[in-house]
Amino acid sequence: MNRLAGVTSPYLLQHADNPVDWWPWGPEAFEEAKRRDAPVLLSVGYSACHWCHVMAHESFEDDDTAAYLNEHFVSVKVDREERPDVDAVYMEAVQAATGQGGWPMTVFLTPDAEPFYFGTYFPPAPRHGMPSFRQVLEGVHLAWDERREEVAEVAGKIVRDLAGREISYGGTETPGEEELAQALLGLTREYDPRRGGFGGAPKFPPAMVIEFLLRHHARTGSEGALQMARDTCERMARGGIYDQLGGGFARYSVDRDWVVPHFEKMLYDNALLCRVYAHLWRATGSELARRVALETADFMVRELRTPEGGFASALDADSDDGSGRHVEGAYYVWTPRQLDEVLGEDAGLAARYFGVTEEGTFEHGSSVLRLPQQEEVFDAARIDSVRARMLAARAERPAPGRDDKVVAAWNGLAVAALAETGAYFDRPDLVEAAVAAADLLVRLHLDDRARLSRTSRDGRAGAHSGVLEDYADVAEGFLALASVTGEGVWLEFAGFLLDHVLARFTGEDGTLYDTAVDAERLIRRPQDPTDNATPSGWTAAAGALLAYAAHTGASPAQGAGGGAYRAAAEKALGVVKALGPRVPRFIGWGLAVAEAALAGPREVAVVGPALDDPAARELHRTALLGTSPGAVVAYGTAGSEEFPLLADRPLVDGEPAAYVCRHFVCDAPTTDSEHLRAALSGGNG
Predict the structure, then answer these.
(1) What is the pTM of this model?
(2) How many other C-beta atoms lie within 10 A of the C-beta of residue 131?
(3) CA torsion sign, 10 to 525 to 571 to 647?
(4) For the chain, N or C: smaller number of CB within 10 Å?
(5) Measured in whole angstroms, how far is the alpha carbon of residue 76 from the centre of its chain?
């Protein structure tokens, strides 16, 4: 029976024709395990995961392995991107037991869903001291049959240990100057001054940490913070982790120098980095930052946009190398011979420009494109021609597979990035793409109680409920869209989502949970405040709550309206006060939100006689380009009820005007863009 045929997850559909008798996660699978008195194999991965594909080909497509699994186990396949709660709970157990984690994640459970044996990828034959997958299966089957009491004891201990890990950081103490300065010092110690970024290989793009550094510079004037942000962005943009032809970033670099990426491209990375490069341009005027922000935005719209207007999750690392074999990076890498075939006499120029050599930087003499030399030494027109011809030739290669499910949280991040990038660079098409994605989220993911579905695909909402990061990141996107478009409906939708955060995801002491109080009960209610590849639900919620409170115009002392949201944001930031000085690399978005809280954030109301009034639009754009951390912008006509911040904000002598406030105490309005720019150039003044 093919139980995966009707699911929405492309990852599960990739396994639908395996000889393994897969079950999707759900009570039916565990009821079957109880009926058969069999252990459960839980296999967790995602569509763009290279080693997930490898293990599937080696083991799950193998008839003998499948027959053994079907006889002795109930096999459950989970897409971690559809069920981040299931992934988080069992990954925590894997990391606690083995000291490491990753995907594919392989966990053996009792029929009560309690884990007792763990791993990640297992090869088809013993390798490098690692047992084969068949040996693991036989060992687990033997333990289940002959040492059941021992298995039950191990499972019970793991569940008790997980239950004791609940996070209780709460309170109203937000990070202050001291904690943020300590976080900056900690980042400085881990900074790689020669290559940019933090730590060693593999090296991940630190988008959220860079956002903190930019905000810290804006608030304090710290040149060191700006230098780390600027140099890291330049090294990444010139390295192989960035697609020098088509724009957009790969998931991470396997080396410290950003040369060789793991080639999968994720929506969330590109949304976060698009926004960061746009903010770097806003702070410095860097032409490189401008180019990368726009190219990354164009990549998302061109290659990830779905027919329904949302954005697909990822592009695979692997693709057909032309011989029928799926090879990592085949779509992106080049040899000197391939340059000759495409470019003729310009091949040498391209090789120098992109760092393509005979020995190569990747496998089999191929090279990942980089920018090892300064572009100014090359003829720009010739390089443009070279790039266009190479991009056209690459488009003829077999393309990587696309995971086309729409994840609510990641689309929220994309909405924010595209809205702001479009506004900064006068690209209304990017703003329109952000609006279309937001429309899809409202139309398809949001029900009549403003509850979110986690995913959709082909215009059909998935069966799984949204988690905290979905509510928080979609609210973040809606708030950015409200500021850019002047359409207050997006502020209203953000409020609906944040009401759910307060009512269903928040504990009594202000701590936050990744799943709602009425969600499916797992062996533990997942809860993680640290930022990983994306902002944690916890810190994302803190940021959205803080911005919404600034928009709705009430302080905590007032005890009503926006005050509840501000108070919740401050309680959530208690965890940043505790963790920021200790592990700043892993709570970058929390630190960025803390910078906004310390700066106010500024509340800016821009009013004009009409939304298309040129002087009003100039003030609006100036407000959006302000670097004061986390500033919120309301834009509308005088007397408009679209935004609370516009109430009682008249024109000044009949002219468009901007009102800059902090904690709802406002400076005198200004009609001058330069004056407004100065008022929004920092954080504390």
Answers:
(1) 0.94
(2) 16
(3) positive
(4) N
(5) 26
